[in-house]
Amino acid sequence: MMLPDRMKLLQIEAPGRVAWKDVPVPVPAAGEVLVRVLGVATCPHWDLHIFGGQPMFPGMQLDYPYLPGQPGHEAVGEVVALGPGVTALRVGARVAVWRDTGRRPQGCYAQFNNLRAEDLIEVPANLGVAQVASLELAMCVEVSFQQLARLGGIAGRSIALSGLGPAGLVAVQLARAHGAAEVVGLDPVAERRELAATLGAHRTLAPEAAAWPASRGAGACDDAIDLTGVPAAIEFLMDRTRRCVTLFGVLREEVRFGTRHLFGPGLLLAGYGEHNRAAAETALRFITEGKLRLAPLMTHTLPFTRYAEGVELLRSKRAIKVLFDPWA
User: Fold this and answer.
1) Minimal CA–CA distance to 12: which of 256, 307, 226, 296?
2) Angstrom distance (rounded) from CA 16 to CA 30
3) pLDDT tens digits, 166-178
4) 1 found inside a domain
5) Which residues contact 191 (CB under 8 A, 6 or more apart)?
6) How many CA atoms lie within 13 A of 90 on its CB side?
């Protein structure tokens, strides 16, 4: 295809203020490919924090104007040019971003973006944009299942998942794909519990003691994943889990581990692992097998010119994820 000289790109100029800019199309450097971006899904925590003027992680330096095209990273597109030394990908390949290193000068909220070939994975051309744009999120969640795999996995076991936002809804499906005998979804929002049930949760509950009394014996789950990062939610799981609670959500406060967790047997509290291509490949395999459906998470599709509206939909919990079309 004949590449244009210029493109449109989104930039957050200040908290609550965004611009849709006209800039030159970048040229791929060694080890990079130029991707024509077909769609980008929001990563709600990133978008809400950065657009709201708050750092994503405690102690993170946050300057405005924010990096152009950032924080867009859950993207799918077509390779249109290869940088020097790239042999693993070809022009015309459909690719998804499987890893966000955080070191790119430009994010994927743009019509074109240079990306390292090693951070991309080729995906079947018959998969729609909504089906695979959030592969990076699925990879991230799969890492938590890798943590549990080190303990023998979850096949035939019960698992509780706290927080049924995008990551939690992915986790419900991954738990089923990994052979869990029972998947229990916890969230205060009824609509999200209902969606989790349609995606494979055996039971869904509000995270309330009346709905699920505390016990690490009868009625407890074998394992759990917290996808909220909220200490109260984590401790709720710890009081109802026999073996291991693993943490996915960004933790900003301390969690209390008490005597009740020390015996019977002792509870394991596991941190997060590392992003890795094997996790991305597992997620992609589940997508192609029909065991992981990401399109139902895309409750709204908008052009980038309506970015602020999309973030407000996330903030008010009227959207689970927004899929942005750079060409609309």
Assistant:
1) 307
2) 36
3) 999 999 999 999 9
4) no
5) none
6) 3
